[in-house]
Amino acid sequence: MERTQRHDVAIVGAGVVGLACAWSAVRRGMSVVVLERDRVAAGASGVAAGMLAPVGEASWGEEAMLAFNLLSLELWDRFAADLEADAGADFGYERIGALHVAADRDEAEQLRHRHEVHRRHGLDARWLRPSECRGVEPGLASAIAGGVVAPHEATVDPARLCDALAAAAREAGAEIVAGAEVLGAELDAGEKRLRTADGREHAAEAVVIAAGVWSAGNWLPAELRPPLRPVKGEILTLRGAPDEPVCERIVAGERVYVVPREDGRLIVGATVQERGFDTTVTAGGVHELLREAYRLLPEIAELELADARAALRPGTPDNLPLVGAVADGSIIASGHFRNGVLQAPATAEAVTSLLAGDELRPELEPLAPGRFGGAGGGKRPHPEAVAR
Question: 16-27 vs 340-356: helix axis angle to the nearest 10?
């Protein structure tokens, strides 16, 4: 085994959350290593549609989720500007807005019910009649029964985003190690040690667990493993002409969403299936997505089916992320389910605050791992040992 390498912070996972945490921490002067079992954005981050749409996610009884989503969307403009400056690359961030539509009268009733949540919380969302929906998006099906326009929702290309985060973190001095699956750990001591499949050992004053559904890996003691479950999502890429887009903004229905890219691609997602660690793309999943997207935008039938993928989202028992210190003083940043891209800026800010000993925003309180017992209730890493 090579000699032990030492850093202030070791981050497990190079998806959008882990990379955002790495970039944020290294900008605060911390030395950082990111340990990735496969490659950058190999999991859910590389398959995500990149919707930044808290209005579309708003639902009754999920006030904590809504507050965290709104906080992160508020942070996205500065996050994107800083990242573009540091990485010197564009990653498709744009506030194109979203139109959430009902394909029939039953769906319209459900959407009006959800719109009451928007109104109760003062969200920037307005109900549209069917003709108004088609005025916003002329390609909508004639059967559309109403919709809600959310003009400030945004999109980003997650694969390009992860590349930019990795480039910016490396430029600032972080080390990102691919093919470095964590096989063992000593987390009780002041200096924590991680042993990886590439035969190396990494020592750090703090460990951040941000490996998506693999954050509950066997390398963690059983009492520290977070309550995560894999939720499979299948997603399609259609290809059309950039100068003849099927839609100009996010179009989302009850069972499907469609996200346009500036190069003419159209992302259609995503199924939700609890089938363990299966990542098979199924004919039924593809059929379901195309059927539901066609109900909203019939013109998709003329587009090329360019790609179909599946990935595993990390779900928690209450579908809220896990962001906070665990019992051994490490930090967990996982369980973002289908909102990891949206929630990356707020999660990165929170993790860096924990590392530096700063005060956390109140929106983070409901996300503490201690709400499930077990691994929760931990103390922060000692700020003098981490912050520089």
Answer: 40
Query: Is residue 233 within 8 Å of 31, Cβ to Cβ?
Result: no
Question: Strands 250-252, 51-52: parallel, antiparallel or unpaired by DSSP?
Answer: unpaired
Where does the pLDDT of residue 328 fall: very low under 50, low under 70, confident under 90, or very high at 90 and above?
confident
Report the domain count for the chain: 2
Among candidate residues 285, 300, 315, the one where a domain is terminated: 315
| 287 and 333 within one domain | no
> Where does a domain end: 282, 315, 348?
315
pLDDT of residue 379: 53
Please provide the average confidence, as pLDDT, over all residues in the chain. 93
Tell me the pLDDT tens digit for each residue of 251-262: 999 999 999 999
Query: Can you give the CATH number for the domain in which 238 is found?
Result: 3.30.9.10
DSSP-assigned states of every residue in 284-344:
HHHHHHHHHHHHH-GGGGGSEEEEEEEEEEEE-TTS--EEEE-TTS-EEEE--TT-HHHHH
Could you tell me the pTM of the whole model? 0.94
Mean pLDDT of 110-120: 95
Q: DSSP character for 170?
A: H
Residue 185, helix vs strand vs coil? strand
Cβ atoms of 28 and 49 within 8 Å: the answer is no
Domain that holds residue 271: 95-152+229-315
